[in-house]
Structures are given as C-alpha cells and as structure tokens.
Specification:
Layout (H helix, E strand, L loop, with lengths): L1 H41 L2 H16 L3 H4 L1 H4 L15 H24 L12 H12 L13 H10 L1 H11 L6 H27 L4 E2 L4 E2 H16 L38 H8 L19 H15 L1
Antiparallel strand pairs: 1-2
This protein binds 2-acetamido-2-deoxy-beta-D-glucopyranose (NAG).
C-alpha cells in the first residue's frame, strides 16, 4: 500500500516535471518565433514613417505631429519636408497615399510594440543627393522634389518600391498566420501605390524633366540602377523602359511594373533596404534619409556591429 502511494507520488512528480519542461521548451520556441516575427514586422515601420511624412508634408504641408501625434511616439519632427507644388489631381492622390500610410503605421503598431519615429531627413538636399548619385554627377540646379508635380512623382518613385520589395522578402520568413496576413495587406497597398506612381510617370515617359534635358524614363532607369548598385544583390529593380530581355516574357520594352523573368515581384532583405535608404550601400553606416539610422532590432543590430568594428 505504502509502496503504491510512493509510486503514485513519484509518477505524479515525473509527470509534473515532464509537462513543466515540455511547456517551457514550447513557450521558449514560441517566444523565438514570435520575436522573429516581431523583428520582421517592426522593421517596415521605418519605411512607413518615411512614406507617411513625405506624402503628408508633400500634400498638406504638415505631418504626423498634426495628423496623428501619438503614432510618432515622441520621435523627432522630420527635417526639411515641405509642401510640394502639385497639380490638384496629384495632390489628391498623394493625400490618399499619405493617409494610407497612417493606417499602415497603426496596423503595425497594433501588432508589435515598435518604436518612436526615427529622425528623417526629407530635405530637398537629401533627395538631390540621391539624384546626383543616380546620375553619377551633380545635377545643376540641384534636384528639388517639392518644386513641381513631375519632380515630386520622381521623388516618390524612390521610396514605396523599396518597401514593396521588403514585404515580398519578409513574407517567407514569417511564422504566424496573423503576421503573414498583415504583411500581405501592407504589400497589396504598397504595390498599388507603386503602380499608380509608375503609371503616372509612364504616361510622361518621353517628357524632358526641366531644366536637365533628361527624360522621365531615363530618371527612373537611373534611380533603379542606383538602388541595385546600393543593394548589392543583383538585379531587383527596373525602370519604366528596359531592354526587351527585361520586359514581360522578354518580349517588350515598356515596363510599367518592375518584376523578374516570370513577372514576380523582386524581394529584398532588411540589410539590402538599409544599404539603399542610408544612401551609401552600407547597412552599418547611417545617412541619407536616416541620419541617425533606422530603428528596431534588425537595424539596431547592424549599427551595433559597426560600433563594435570601430571600437575594435
Ligand atoms: C539632411 O541631408 C542634407 C544632404 O545630405 C545634409 O546637408 C543635412 O545636413 C542633413 N540634415 C540632417 C539633420 O541630417
């Protein structure tokens, strides 16, 4: 009888610790998965902040601090963003894009803790630098994204597409269905924005951008080439008019959407994206639109590893 009782206690203890241990292991691996999803979901906040502010200022002359201050979480006000001189049709579209980005920020922050708005450099000088790099020489006068509709659309060509490729890249790395659903929802609207911007530019592909005597198509080709060069991962970016071999089915030079040989969207890693938005091709060295670097675990760990290299 006593033996049975002891055996029972032993069995109980064994079962208790077994299940305790199993649940510990399971919850730990869930935590790892969750943190991977979290990292991948918070990273795009950087680009969503950038787009939200660029589009808000461009269409309204003010930004998140006026529209939805709590989404900025006390992050510094962007530097150099301005109201753009847009025709009424484009202004209407850009305002819609701007408000869509506000929704995106909220959707991501409802899912992950995120971080406050990082310091953004949206000055015309920051955009002028991108264009100078794209052409491999200083444009004269310096490119001003806020000067008129066509310049603003060309500047807009610079950003949402990078977010799009990031969402395509993030998707297969996500574990949870809710994360995948969020990213698919963000991707859908980002690629819609990119398509609208590209369509408006495609319509004016042969237009000479004053005073540079360079066509709209040439601008887009140069910007896409620059992003590929900075990303350092091969062809993932295509302008509006390409060699036939890069058009859909290798059969056409018009290139309204940028996509691979099977017309699937290209994908980029967070590191590739940082190389592009920092402007210098190095994910460890902030600059460009993010003078103090992007935020979140992924971007921060790139900055830390550069700190470590500098200290060493
Ligand atoms: C913004 O970018 C321009 C061009 O690179 C630079 O001159 C300016 O100092 C930058 N501003 C900040 C606050 O980083």
């Amino acid at each position: 009888m006593a033996l049975h009782a002891n055996f029972g206690v032993l069995l109980f203890c064994f079962c208790f610790f077994f299940f305790f241990f199993v649940s510990l292991v399971v919850s730990e691996s869930e935590a790892i998965e969750e943190s991977n999803d979290n990292d991948l979901l918070e990273f795009p906040l950087n680009l969503e902040y950038l787009e939200a502010e660029f589009f808000l200022y461009g269409s309204l002359g003010y930004g998140l601090d006026t529209i939805e201050p709590e989404l900025a979480q006390g992050g510094p006000t962007p530097v150099g963003a301005e109201l753009a001189r847009l025709d009424p049709f484009t202004k209407d579209l850009i305002l819609q894009f701007a408000l869509q980005e506000v929704g995106h920020l909220r959707a991501i922050k409802n899912r992950v803790k995120g971080f406050p708005r990082p310091l953004l450099n949206l000055s015309k000088e920051a955009f002028a630098e991108v264009m100078d790099s794209a052409f491999g020489k200083p444009l004269n006068p310096p490119f001003d994204p806020y000067a008129n509709t066509i310049n603003y659309l060309l500047a807009s060509y610079v950003i949402p597409y990078v977010g799009l490729t990031g969402y395509v890249g993030a998707n297969p790395k996500l574990q949870h269905p809710t994360s995948k659903q969020l990213v698919a929802g963000l991707l859908g609207v980002e690629s819609g924005q990119d398509a609208v911007i590209r369509a408006l530019l495609y319509e004016r592909q042969a237009l000479q951008v004053t005073p540079y005597e360079v066509t709209v198509a040439e601008f887009t080709n140069r910007i896409s080439e620059l992003r590929d060069k900075l990303g350092k991962s091969g062809l993932k970016d295509e302008g509006l008019v390409v060699h036939k071999v890069h058009g859909a089915e290798g059969k056409i030079t018009g290139n309204i959407l940028s996509a691979d040989k099977d017309s699937l969207s290209y994908h980029r890693t967070p590191q590739e994206i940082l190389r592009i938005v920092y402007g210098g091709g190095n994910e460890h060295v902030p600059g460009g639109f993010f003078p103090k670097g992007a935020d979140g675990h992924i971007a921060k760990s790139c900055l830390k590893s550069s700190q470590w290299l500098m200290d060493a």
